[in-house]
Amino acid sequence: MSTLSFLLEGLRNIGTTGTITRSSPALCTAAIDRIDFATARTIVELGAGDGVITRHILERLHPDGKVIAFEVSEDLCDDMRAIGDPRLVVAQDSAEHIRFWLDKIDADLADHVVSAIPFAALPPELGNRIVNAARDNLRSGGCYNQVHYSLKTKSYYERAFGKVEAKRIYLNLPPAWVLYCKK
Ligand SMILES: C[S@@+](CC[C@H](N)C(=O)[O-])C[C@H]1O[C@@H](n2cnc3c(N)ncnc32)[C@H](O)[C@@H]1O
């Protein structure tokens, strides 16, 4: 999807996209920091958009690995399907249905979860359901990395995971945060 189309998609659905720009290379790199790609085989991505972070994951993912990328917009899912990587499972679904999609690929638990879901724009009940589903389906020792433009919903991750480390990423428009949690 072109940058202009992405901007228009963002404006059309601002209540679910939470942004009109995609993550910069620096933010994508920070979003997948802490993932041990040598051992990871199942990575779950929430709010994948047109796959900008997904591509960074695929570059480093083991040949036998899988990424389940959740996205609710049909157009953005079409962009991800066009990536055409057999390791990518595009889940055109709401992110709380992680268990269903892990079962689909016969995976017990996710090794790591990366999320860019704009929780501040979603109802708190839905946000907490998604974060809890991510935690419940994450293996012990796995990381949960959350991309955000504010720290408004930091308490969601503190409640689910306990300790949360926040890192500011200035090389992004607007400057963003990545919140790192561990199960
Ligand atoms: C801030 S954008 C991030 C896009 C891309 N990952 C990036 O980093 O540029 C958030 C995305 O989350 C998606 N989204 C919102 N609610 C969702 C939900 N309940 N389940 C899955 N995706 C959702 C939106 O459609 C949007 O594409």
Automatic annotation (TrEMBL):
Classification lineage: Bacteria, Pseudomonadati, Bacteroidota, Saprospiria, Saprospirales
Coiled-coil regions listed: none
Species per Swiss-Prot/TrEMBL record: Neolewinella xylanilytica
Domain of life, source organism: Bacteria
InterPro entries for the chain: Methyltransf_25, SAM-dependent_MTases_sf
Keywords, ordered alphabetically: Methyltransferase, Transferase
GO biological process, one term: methylation
Protein name: Phospholipid N-methyltransferase
The keyword Methyltransferase is assigned to this record: yes
UniProt keyword Methyltransferase present: yes
Domain spans labelled Methyltransferase: 43-142
MF terms (GO), sorted A to Z: methyltransferase activity
